[in-house]
Amino acid sequence: MIIVQMSRAYTPAEAAAVSEVAVKSVHNAIDKRIIARRLSEDEGRALSDDDLLRLKLWYGVGSILSAERRQRLFDTIDQDPDVDTVRVDDYLIVDVARAREQLAARAEALREAERVIESVKGVLGGEPVFRKTRVPVRTIAAVKAQGATSEEIIEGYPSLTLRMVELAEIWTAAHPARGRPRKLSELGATVKSSKRLSLTIGARKPSRA
């Protein structure tokens, strides 16, 4: 499958969701001018696709390369924007093409999510839902974050698909809610079925006296 990457401006939260870098780190990269933002100052703190590539690479190889060597990596990419790999020393080759592919796939997922998610006045108090449903998107993302599998979520919300669960995650990351999350009962919504989930995986076993 060929993914066509379309240029757009990203908010720091959207940049974090697409690059899979913490939003705090995105702001840090902007403040410290780690990334050379290509957008004009009147666009605020928005980032471009090129900025996202540098953001992903900066933190992706941060534990391996010094800041100086990472900057040299950026310089090499600037000299050849279409380069697939960059050899940074005798033992390490950075796969720039793979980073671009990952960013393009997540950017397309975010665009897809924005096409199928909407806020409608009078539907769950304007809470974002999937089109033609009353399923609150942020609730799905929260349940997934708490340990539920996509299959378990679909069992409770039969109108959803596996892809919709994925889209709920990236959309919610790109559009963080302000204030306390509202419960389903507060939204006037209910699930079609329920299943108690065990979230104790990996919990420490009590020691024996």
Automatic annotation (TrEMBL):
- What is the top-level taxon of the source organism? Bacteria
A Pfam family cross-referenced in the UniProt record is: DUF433
Q: Could you identify this protein by its name?
A: Uncharacterized protein (DUF433 family)
